[in-house]
Design a protein that fits this description.
Blueprint lengths: L9 H18 L2 E7 L3 E9 L4 H20 L13 E5 L2 H13 L6 E4 L17 E9 L6
Antiparallel strand pairs: 1-2, 1-4, 2-5, 3-5
């Protein structure tokens, strides 16, 4: 990668948050929580088991990159995201609620946030994901320069 590490501004963070929501809606995935910081993102999302995590994150990051490129231009490094990122499956309700709490309430420097509980009366946080769905928590960083 060429160029400086990517650090999201508040405007970029809101664009990412909005596009992640749009992609999840379009794909029929349940997005529970997002916190976007300048150099990384935490999110909790549920998708059918048939969806590979690589596909899920390719779509989320791909559509967000496209939206940011169109609105703000490409970053100097040429990439908005790191290739890797941590992700883990959440196997029960306790793990799901813990991940949502961690994502929404235990981050510093949050520039944009999405909490499914505050939108509408159908709160997906009040019930666990469907049995055939996988709930995931992910931490994906913005692109870092390599020297």
């Amino acid at each position: 990668m060429r160029g400086p590490a990517v650090r999201l501004s508040r405007e970029l963070a809101h664009a990412v948050c909005e596009q992640f929501q749009a992609t999840a809606r379009q794909r029929g995935w349940k997005l529970f929580a997002i916190s976007v910081m300048a150099n990384h993102i935490h999110l909790v999302i549920a998708a059918p088991h048939a969806i590979r995590t690589e596909t899920l994150f390719r779509d989320l990051k791909g559509y967000a990159s496209k939206a940011m490129n169109e609105r703000f231009g490409r970053p100097a490094s040429g990439a908005w995201w790191t290739r890797s990122g941590s992700r883990r499956r959440l196997h029960d309700e306790e793990a799901l609620f813990g991940a949502i709490d961690y994502t929404l309430n235990r981050q510093r420097g949050v520039l944009a946030r999405f909490d499914a509980k505050v939108i509408g009366s159908d709160c997906p946080c009040e019930r666990p994901p469907e049995p055939r769905a996988q709930a995931l928590v992910a931490n994906h960083g913005t692109a870092q320069s390599r020297e």
